[in-house]
Amino acid sequence: MRTPETFITQSRNNVLIVDDDVDDRKMIEETLKVHLCSKEYIHFDNGQKLLEYLYKIIAHQYPAFIILDFNMPIKNGEETLAEIKRHVELRMIPVVIFTTSYKSKYRDLYKLGANCVLQKPSEYLEVMELLKALSFIYCMHGAVD
User: What tens digit of pLDDT does each residue of 28-73 get?
Assistant: First the structure.
């Protein structure tokens, strides 16, 4: 089993973006790039594809963090988060839920192990400001080399 120290030393400088809306994925990546958050961004349009990827790379590397949409087809954010946090070698990966869902779900998501749950603002500039703050937390304070 990997320890937190192993997780830190094997973390890569990449961010996984999981959202069924291609425009949202692009906006998230572009905003994080402006703030020098990562060298590599890997996109998925549902939780099942993310999990398949994570199970393939787990022996070799970890992402810096995952931005996970809540409402997606095939495997939604809640189901995906639950599976990540149940897995002994994946649970240390920081997961940020980015959602338009009601705040009443937030407590459940934190109980499942979400590191952060953010309401998607409806205005583009507000989304950019929120992602800027997110990049400061996860990129400037050691999550990304």
Answer: 888 877 766 667 889 999 999 999 999 988 767 788 889 999 888 8
Instruction: Answer yes or no: are the C-beta atoms of 58 and 88 closer than 8 Å.
Output: no
| H or E element in which residue 88 lies | none
Residues 145 and 21: their CA atoms lie apart, in Å, by: 28
Report phi then psi at 88, rounded to 5. -60, -35
Number of H helices, E strands in the chain: 6, 5
Domains and CATH numbers, the chain: 4-137 (3.40.50.2300)
pLDDT given at position 44? 95
Q: What is the pLDDT of residue 66?
A: 92
Task: Enumerate residues 6+ apart whose C-beta is below 8 A from 130.
Answer: 118, 121
* Rounded-to-integer distance, Cα 102 and Cα 97, Å: 12
Q: Give the helix ranges, DSSP H, for the chain.
A: 4-10, 22-34, 47-57, 77-86, 106-112, 124-139
Edge-to-edge strand ranges of the sheet holding 95-99:
40-44, 14-18, 65-69, 95-99, 116-119
Task: Give the pLDDT of residue 28.
Answer: 85
